[in-house]
Prior knowledge:
CATH class: Alpha Beta
Helix content: 40-55%
Low-confidence stretches: none
CATH topology: Rossmann fold
Shape: globular
Largest sheet: 5 strands, parallel
Number of helices: 6
Oligomer: single chain
Mean pLDDT: 82
Structural class: alpha/beta
Amino acid sequence: MKLFLCVPFSGHVTESGAVEEAYRQTIERLLxxxxxxxxxxxxxxxxxxxxxxxxxxxxxxxxxxxxxxxxCDKVVVLVEERVSAGVQLENxxxxxxxxxxxxxxxxxxxxxxxxxxxxxxxxxxQVTDIDDFARQAxxxx
Length: 141
């Protein structure tokens, strides 16, 4: 299955805009795990070379991300207590394109994430952390 993986990362970057190493390793482990289970996975964070604005201009990155959503079979969205504008933008685009979407809340739920998911007709699956998400996502996909 071709998956578009939405992950929040603005709260996980250094002052230079690079993704914190521990968070990068967690997401890389997740991507490897999904790929080992036969999924073709796109992650904008990986595409941007693990740096905010690292791949190209914001316009080019967004256009590329939307094209990847268009090509995917399913959008898998991870949300945290801190709301991610990028994740919500990708989720909204997927909704507008009538894509199948699965939303996973990491840790404490945020009202805005719950409201956004409910407005788009998605249920949120509660997970404790990204490793818990990987276990549940592999079972459900």
